[in-house]
Amino acid sequence: MKKRASIALAITFLMATAATAAENRCGWIVNPTPGNYWLDDKEGSWMIMAQGSDVEAKGAENMPDFSAGQFVRTNGYYGYACTCMSVDVDRAEKRITQIHSVKQLALAKCKGDKSLPKPNVD
């Protein structure tokens, strides 16, 4: 009986861990205007934060200054860059809920990826 309980507990733990495991998502990080960020990847657009909304991904304040690397300006100091992010997501809401890490990539990396849409800066 103890063995069954231990196995059941282990399975439950593994399922819970898998459900909250961070995903690696790569694509266009878009910041068209103040307070608006999203990631466009091969699966669609993932909201990070929106101006006027109290919903914001945890860890968003730790995102780097993308304009310090390869960055396309589309509106003053705002625009888009290529990035890979380790994140937790809410698939139903298409929202990034937690940002664990961010690595900015060369623009050519995203431009050359045929699975990515063109950056949506609207």
Automatic annotation (TrEMBL):
Key word Signal present: yes
Matches recorded under InterPro entries: DUF4087
Signal sequence, start to end: 1-21
Keyword annotations of the record: Signal
Superkingdom of the source species: Bacteria
Stated name of the protein: DUF4087 domain-containing protein
Organism: Rhizobium rhizoryzae
Organism placement in taxonomy: Bacteria, Pseudomonadati, Pseudomonadota, Alphaproteobacteria, Hyphomicrobiales
